[in-house]
Amino acid sequence: MTQGWSARDIPDQSGRTAVVTGANSGIGLLTARELARCGARVLLACRDERRGKEAADRIRYAVRGADVEFAALDLADLSSVREFAAGYRADRLDLLINNAGVMALPYGRTADGFETQFGVNHLGHFALTGLLLPRLLATEGARVVTVSSGLHALADIDMGDLNSERNYRRWIAYGRSKTANLLFVHELARRAAAAGSGLVAAAAHPGYASTNLQTAAARMENRRAAERVMGLANRVVAQSASAGALPTLYAATAPGVRPDSFTGPRLLGWRGAPGPSWRAGWTRDEVAGERLWVASEQLTGVTYAGL
Predict the structure, then answer these.
(1) Which residues are catalytic?
(2) Dihedrals φ, ψ of 68, to 5°?
(3) At 46, which helix (H) or strand (E)?
(4) What is the pLDDT of residue 45?
(5) What is the mean predicted confidence (pLDDT) over 271-280?
(6) Count of CB atoms situated within 10 Å of the CB of 220
(7) Going edge to edge, which strands form the sheet with 262-267?
(8) What CA dihedral angle connects 40, 277, 295 and 136, to 10 degrees?
(9) Most confident range, picked from 113-127, 203-217, 228-242
C-alpha cells in the first residue's frame, strides 16, 4: 500500500550505497538527504563542484553522521560520465538514482553534439547506467530509478530526428526526452529479466513540485516576466520539493517495487503521496524501446555487457 507513504516509511538503508545525479538542489538534494538519514552512503553526482560540496555540507548539517560525498559528473559531456564511472571505487552499488535533468531550454547541444535535453536527460544517464552496470549486477537487490515526467505525454520519441534538428520546439523536445527515459526503463527491465538478473529498473516522477527546474530556462534567457510567473505558480500551485521527492524515494526503497513501474503523486499525477502513475502506451512499445536502445549504444559508445 502506498497511501500515506512518507519519508518516515523508508526502510533502514545501512550498508547500502547510492549514487544520486543532480543532487545539489531540489528533488535530488532531498532524495540524497533522506537516503543518508536512513543510513545509506550517498555519492552526490553533480556538475558544479561548489554547489555539490555545499549540498554535501547541508546534508551533514541536517543529518548527524551522514556519509555523503561529492563527485563531479557532467551529463552533457560523455567524457565526464566515463571519468565518473572510472573513478567509482566502491565494490557495490545498491541504488542508482538518475535524477538530474533540464527542461524546456532554448536549442543547444552537449559537448558531444547532441540536442541538450535528449543528451542530458536520456543519453547521459543511459551511458552512466551502462558504465556502472557491473557494480549494479554484482549487488543483490540493486535498483536503477530514473526520474521521468508526466509531461512525457507531450510527445512520443522520433527515431528519425532524435536531436530535434528538423523542427525544434522546446516542450516537445522535453516530452520526447522524458518518453526516452520511460522507454529506457522498460527495455532495461526487459533485458534484466531475460538475463535472470534481480536488478530492478523503475521510473518515478515528482508531479508539479516547486524546484528551480521550472524557472531555469526563463532565467537563462533573461525573460523576467516568465520567471516571475513560474515562481508564482511554484508558490501557489505546486507541492513542496520534499513531497516531490517521495515518488523517487518510494521507487528506490519501498519493498515490492516492480520492474518497469512508474510511481508518481496519487492525486491526478499532480500532488500527494506516491502511487502508481499513468503512462502513455508508447512508453511500453518494445520495438521502439529496442530501437532507442540500439541507437543510444551507437551514439554513446556504451554497451551493456551482461544484458
Answers:
(1) 174
(2) -130, 150
(3) strand 41-46
(4) 98
(5) 89
(6) 13
(7) 67-72, 41-46, 17-21, 95-98, 143-147, 200-204, 262-267, 271-276
(8) 20
(9) 113-127
